[in-house]
């Protein structure tokens, strides 16, 4: 792979979602990501199934492409030496160990910085300060997400706080790499799931701060924009998002209710928010008279944002070019979701390595670190490393 981060080496000691998501994004940009995993069980998500493909859990496959796997027991004295050498030569080190673990292993920020002054070191925790363990579900509870979602309290259906933390980590690392390249200085990057979640509340958090009142749950509606919610059509549900006064007028024209724009109660968004119940009742009666497809066709023609409420697989299959296909060593042809950005300088058709098997690249990575064959044999005998043994499945030609 080539890209703007070509030549950047990342030592990735993170696991599960936030850290691996961040390093997958950086790998998409061309970085050489070395995924350090326990030699027996690897990343926790390797066991988070079913479903599986070629013996690998779908969860693991989702966020680990473009990386190389080093199966290393960092708690073993021999493995610890390898981890320290890897950190000393890396441009970026990222970890999400429990508080104090990285320091005990000799790969905490201060120890790594002494050996590698220019390093960008990223630590991801559940809570600021890293004094409590945290998974997405507990962070969604603590951050207010469950309080404002669905029929409150309700968890968002994906680990959104991990995804936000991963994106924040990737952005901060990119900024730190620029400082490293231009000034030769390293940087400590600290990211928490809770901090990422709270920053992701954006207008909801700011409204609570301005009003001094607790945020409310609006289900599929919006607290400060009306109409911006789901409506029942004759054969299903659709979302309608008239985000300003112009779109509201276009909406009313498209559904044959121009009279609503002349009603003083509904002329401005402020009034529509205050008279939410009355307006929604009027619109709901109209939307119930036609099918989802009919309404979407009318609203699209009028330039009013609307959409069918789809399942995940349905959304993927109707969205266009949102997946890529890789040849996996054990799963064969593997379809994965693309990242949500493209760069003009990076070809969409470039070769991307599939998510690695556990320890698939152990020997080559140890050799790159200057570790001799005899030493590698000793590490294997001591149980400090693991090298995957597999036969690559040939590509399957389309029928």
TrEMBL record:
Source organism of this protein record: Streptosporangium amethystogenes subsp. fukuiense
Per its record, how is this protein called by name?
A: CaiB/BaiF CoA transferase family protein
Keyword Transferase on entry: yes
Pfam families per record: CoA_transf_3
Domain of life here? Bacteria
Give the Gene Ontology MF terms in alphabetical order. Answer: transferase activity
Q: Which UniProt keywords apply?
A: Transferase
Q: Which InterPro entries match?
A: CoA-transferase_III_domain, CoA-Trfase_fam_III, CoA-Trfase_III_dom3_sf, CoA-Trfase_III_dom_1_sf
């Amino acid at each position: 792979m080539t890209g703007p981060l070509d030549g950047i080496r990342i030592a990735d000691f993170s696991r599960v979602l936030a850290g691996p998501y961040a390093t997958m994004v950086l790998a998409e940009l061309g970085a050489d990501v070395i995924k350090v995993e326990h030699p027996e069980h690897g990343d926790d998500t390797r066991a988070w199934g079913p479903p599986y493909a070629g013996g690998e859990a779908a969860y693991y496959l989702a966020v680990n492409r473009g990386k190389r796997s080093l199966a290393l027991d960092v708690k073993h004295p021999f493995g610890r030496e390898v981890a320290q050498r890897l950190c000393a030569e890396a441009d970026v080190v990222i970890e999400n160990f429990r508080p104090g673990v990285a320091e005990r292993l000799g790969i905490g920020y201060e120890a790594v910085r002494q050996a590698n002054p220019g390093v960008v070191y990223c630590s991801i925790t559940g809570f600021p300060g890293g004094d409590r363990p945290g998974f997405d579900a507990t962070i969604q509870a603590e951050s207010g997400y469950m309080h404002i979602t669905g029929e409150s309290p309700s968890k968002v259906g994906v680990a959104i706080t991990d995804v936000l933390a991963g994106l924040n980590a990737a952005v901060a690392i990119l900024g730190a790499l620029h400082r490293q390249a231009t000034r030769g200085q390293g940087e400590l990057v600290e990211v928490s799931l809770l901090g990422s979640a709270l920053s992701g509340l954006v207008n909801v958090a700011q409204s609570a701060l301005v009003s001094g009142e607790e945020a409310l749950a609006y289900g599929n509606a919006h607290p400060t924009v009306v109409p911006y919610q789901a409506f029942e059509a004759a054969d299903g549900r659709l979302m309608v998002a008239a985000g300003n006064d112009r779109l509201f007028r276009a909406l009313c024209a498209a559904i044959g209710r121009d009279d609503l724009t002349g009603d003083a109660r509904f002329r401005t968004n402020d009034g529509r928010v205050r008279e939410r119940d009355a307006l929604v009742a009027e619109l709901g009666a109209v939307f119930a008279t036609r099918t989802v497809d009919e309404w979407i066709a009318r609203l699209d023609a009028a330039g009013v944002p609307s959409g069918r409420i789809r399942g995940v697989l349905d959304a993927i299959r109707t969205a266009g070019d949102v997946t890529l296909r890789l040849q996996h060593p054990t799963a064969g042809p593997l379809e994965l979701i693309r990242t949500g950005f493209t760069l003009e300088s990076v070809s969409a058709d470039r070769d991307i390595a599939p998510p690695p098997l556990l320890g698939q690249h152990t020997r080559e990575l140890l050799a790159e670190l200057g570790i001799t064959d005899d030493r590698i044999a000793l590490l294997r005998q001591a149980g400090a490393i693991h090298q995957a043994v597999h036969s690559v499945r040939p590509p399957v030609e389309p029928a």
